[in-house]
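Hi P.,

Sorry for the delay on this. The queue was packed all week, but I finally got your sequence through. Input first:
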Amino acid sequence: MIEVVYLAASGLDAYTKKQETIAANLANTNTAGFKKYIADFTITADEVDGIESKVVQPEVSIDFTKGDLTYSGNNLDIAIDGEGFFTIETEQGLRYTRNGQFKLSGNGEIITSNGGKVLGQSGPLIIPKGKSSLTIDGSGKIKSDNSTIGELLINNFKEKSSLIPIGSSLFMASPEAAQDPSNRNYTIAQGYLEQSNVNVVTEMVEMIENMRNYEASNYLIKNFSDTLHQLISSQSNIV
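Then the structure:
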C-alpha cells in the first residue's frame, strides 16, 4: 500500500508539470511560429525514505509539426513552408525561430519584434534607404527595386530535439545540435505567417483529463492518510 501512495504522490508533481505545459500552450495559441509542448509520463523505480517504490516522472518534449500558413499581405511577414528555421542574431547569441513576423529598424535592418537581427547568408539584412519595394522569392532571395539585398539564412537540424526553447518562439542550439545544410526542403512564402500548432480543443480535453487524474491521486493519498490516522487513534484508545 505504501508503494501505491508513493506512486500517487509523485503523480501529483507530474500532473502539475503537465498542467503547466498545457497552460503554456494555451497562452501561445496566437503566437506565430509557436511549437507546442508535450508532457509524457514514465514510471521508474526509485528509493524513497529507504523504501523502494515506483515513481512517475514527467518528460517534456516539443512538437515541431508545422502550423497552418495564413495570408496577412504584409511584405515583412514571412513563412517557411517546409523544413528549417530563420536565423536570428541576438545579444545572447544565435537563435532560431519559425516566427516570421518581422519589421524594419530605424536603420533599415529586418528585425524581430524583440530587436533580434534577421540574418542572411552574408549577415544582417539591411534595406538601403530610398528603396520602396521588397520582394522575396521562394528560395529566400530578397530584392528591393530589382536590386538583390541578400538571401535568408535558413538553418535546419538533424535532430530537432537538440533545440532548447527560449521564450515563446525562439530556440537555442545545444552543443550537441548538428546542422543539416543539405536539407533545403522548404519554400519561402512572403506575406504569410505560420500559426501556432496548438489545437485549443485538444488542449482543453487534455487539461480536463489531467485534472481528473490529479484529483484521483490526491483522493488516494487523503484516503490513506485518514485510514492511517484512524488506525493510530484506535491503537491509542486500546492502550
